[in-house]
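Structure (tokenized):
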């Protein structure tokens, strides 16, 4: 069964929205097969069209496939290492802290980059590819090894791979391999300009 079909069985939006939004999820089971640059390119083409403040497009993706992937595996925490060994690519997401046109701080650089990463994830799901975000890695190691300049922020990493059956995962991960639920809309939206902070 396709990645999106699994989510469709479980996730039920409360009103009509594009299935694009609720059929994306973050599996960990990947086949271990590689993906060509041609297969990966559409995911980043999707990111290209994300909105950003002043159209600054602050997102940067550092993609490791094949032997480079081993170097990136070394950044990951033990839990993520277990399932990422079957990824076709590991990606470091960075963002430019300042505007290109005037060098001033771009306050929304992380916000903008979040939109771009989401586009990668949505296009990946549409193509039955796992795109799974990660914060479980050593940010300092990434900064030093990849020599990320100080005017860039390391935001996150993500894995990309061909979707596989959950039977290939270790038992404890198999149980978690299911599309997750969400808060109700009223828990994060207030229509009257007031909000009950918790
Ligand atoms: C920025 C970010 C960091 C994450 N870090 C990890 C991680 O280190 N390891 C992991 O297994 N999942 C990680 N996740 C996956 C989240 O747990 C997952 O997106 C969340 O539970 C919602 O589930 P869904 O993506 O399947 O809808 C991360 C997701 C994001 C967006």
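Design, position by position:
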């Amino acid at each position: 069964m396709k990645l999106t079909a699994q989510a469709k069985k479980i996730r039920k939006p409360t009103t009509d929205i594009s299935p694009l939004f609720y059929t994306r999820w973050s599996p960990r089971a990947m086949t271990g097969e590689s993906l060509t640059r041609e297969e990966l390119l559409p995911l980043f083409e999707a990111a290209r069209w994300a909105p950003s403040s002043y159209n600054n497009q602050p997102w940067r993706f550092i993609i490791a496939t094949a032997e480079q992937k081993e170097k990136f595996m070394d950044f990951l925490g033990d839990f993520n290492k277990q399932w990422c060994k079957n990824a076709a690519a590991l990606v470091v997401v960075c963002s430019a802290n300042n505007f290109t046109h005037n060098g001033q701080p771009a306050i929304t650089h992380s916000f903008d980059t979040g939109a771009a990463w989401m586009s990668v994830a949505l296009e990946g799901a549409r193509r039955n590819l796992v795109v799974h975000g990660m914060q479980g890695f050593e940010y300092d190691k990434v900064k030093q090894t990849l020599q990320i300049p100080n005017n860039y922020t390391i935001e996150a990493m993500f894995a990309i791979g061909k979707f596989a059956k959950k039977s290939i995962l270790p038992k404890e991960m198999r149980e978690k391999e299911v599309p997750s639920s969400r808060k109700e809309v009223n828990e994060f939206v207030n229509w009257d300009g007031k909000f009950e902070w918790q």
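Reviewer-requested clarification: The mean pLDDT is 97. Residues 25-26, 80, 133-136, 156, 179-180 surround flavin mononucleotide (CB under 6 Å).
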